[in-house]
Amino acid sequence: MQLLLLLFLYLLGWASSFYPNHESKGVGLQDLTDADITEMGILKAVATFMERNPRPGTQEFRAGQLVDLSPLTPTTLFQAYFKGVHFVDRHREALIKRTPIVAPILDALLTEKMIHQELYTEIVTATTTPQNKMRMLFLATTAWGTKQKDYFYKILEREQPFLIEELQTS
């Protein structure tokens, strides 16, 4: 019973953001329609979720960084959430210099059809150092979108966990 009461109180806190309250900045109930109030509440809830769940490979948001956007609209929220430079782009130089074994990364990318057999063969056979292999691989990433870079990040995280962890904290 106590657990249900705690859950109810927790959910009540989330629901309070759907109506003007003490956290609303200069907004009164008379100024808004029900649709406006609902949209604002949903946007704040989505912004809170986005702050707590950054995209893989992107930097974390400060508390309130998205919720306090002015104006808070679907467009500004989307742009703020997705504008950050992706981890693989931000740490390109370090990934090239410090990734010691490239073959498992290439294998995973080939399996997922993110690179073609021709590029895979060229990287594996034509270059000798891991740095040159990563440089060639990064040439392919320039054409990738966020989805492909997210997957590349997950592969790097799986194959080079200590390097990725260190780069995340730097």
Automatic annotation (TrEMBL):
Subcellular location: Cytoplasm, Cytosol
Coiled coil: none
Signal peptide extent: 1-17
InterPro entries with a match to the protein in the record: CARD, CARD8/ASC/NALP1_CARD, DEATH-like_dom_sf, NLRP_Inflammasome
Keywords of the record: Cytoplasm, Immunity, Inflammatory response, Innate immunity, Signal
Source species, domain of life: Eukaryota
Any single GO BP term: inflammatory response
Matching Gene3D superfamilies: Death Domain, Fas
PANTHER family: APOPTOSIS-ASSOCIATED SPECK-LIKE PROTEIN CONTAINING A CARD, NACHT, LRR AND PYD DOMAINS-CONTAINING PROTEIN 1
Protein name according to UniProt: Apoptosis-associated speck-like protein containing a CARD
Species name: Acipenser ruthenus (Sterlet sturgeon)
The organism's taxonomic lineage, starting at the top: Eukaryota, Metazoa, Chordata, Craniata, Vertebrata
